[in-house]
Amino acid sequence: MEHQRRADLMLLLTTSFWGISNCLTAICLRDMQPLTLNAFRFVIAFLVLGFVFHKNLRRVSRVTVKYSIMVGLSLVIVYTSLTYGVLYTSVSNAGFIGALSVVTTPILEFIVYHKKPEKKFGVSMILCLIGLALMTLNETLKPALGDVICLFAAIFYSVDLMVTEKAVANEKVDPLALGVCDLAVVGVVMLMLSVFLETPALPGTAKVWAAALFLGIVCSGVCLVIQSVYQKHTTASRASLIFTLEPVFSAIFAFFLLGERIGVKGYIGAALMLASLVLVEVDVGALFGKNKKKAD
User: Which of 130, 229, 237, 247 has its CA 20 to 30 A from that of 14?
Assistant: First the structure.
């Protein structure tokens, strides 16, 4: 229990950094192209974390490499979707829609592992869809392009969580080495894509340099390593629940750093989405039963 509590706290810390990453991404995209930004942040992250944990990389198993490729490729889609999504929607919307992994994870677990979700999942889905509609649909009842793109991030982040959970359960896998190797895979793929599809260029101002370095070293490097190390002491579903707090942090940082406002309709939608995401994992019956027992 103590290990799980510590893991939950570390994943919560990671979530707060990912919340601010959407704001920093928006700042960097004023001066850098999406694929180039992702290549920069993950290459920097690998160089720094690879240097710090070089001893762990000397004894990397083939199994670790196999899982790192699987996780890395899913993260390429996640971060590409989020980065392009931020270009075409608000930071707040990107954060909330990206957090839908807490809903997509049980769906994928049912498809892959035949793990049947609880009945309350249907209620959660209805709340989530209503909230998503309030947040994203405009007067013409059409979502922004960025909202649709961010949905792909949620789906493939569920893939990342499921593969990571399976990987760290394997005794031959070093979680720390897995996290660092993930960075290498994402960095190499993003670099190749940026060279072929964009004109790579380094940040042009001190502000963008600072934002890009923080994105790379902290939001990408440190956070992904923390996830790999501490997810061993929790589950994919529990981790996805903790990560639902990312949009809350994202909206707060967007409010103070970028001056974003999502309006009353948007805040109501966000509240419904957050409620639906929490409902997926919280055992309401047991919670009230426990409180009643204490009262007696």
Answer: 130
In the numeric block, the tokens 């000397």 are attached to 58
Rounded CA-CA distance 146/93 in Å is: 9
Residue in 163, 197, 142, 166 with CA at minimum distance from that of residue 78: 163
Nearest-angstrom CA–CA distance, 154 and 163: 14
Q: What secondary structure letter does DSSP report for 173?
A: -
Sole residue written with tokens 């966000």 = 270
Task: Please write the tens of the pLDDT for every residue from 104-146.
Answer: 888 888 899 887 777 777 777 788 778 877 876 666 656 778 8
**Structure-block tokens of residue 178:** 């897995």
Using CA atoms, how far residue 134 sits from 19, 128, 277, in Å, is 21, 10, 16
pTM higher than 0.85, yes or no?
no
Distance (Å, rounded) from C-alpha 33 to C-alpha 83?
9
Would you say residue 160 lies in a domain?
yes
Q: Give domain status of residue 288, yes or no.
A: no
Distance between CA 18 and CA 83 in Å, rounded? 13
- What DSSP string runs through 57-120? HTT--HHHHHHHHHHHHHHHHHHHHHHHHHHHS-HHHHHHHHTTHHHHHHHHHHHHH--PPPTH
Does the residue 293 lie in any domain?
Answer: no
Domain that holds residue 134: 2-282
DSSP assignment letter at 143: B
Number of domains present in the structure of the chain: 1
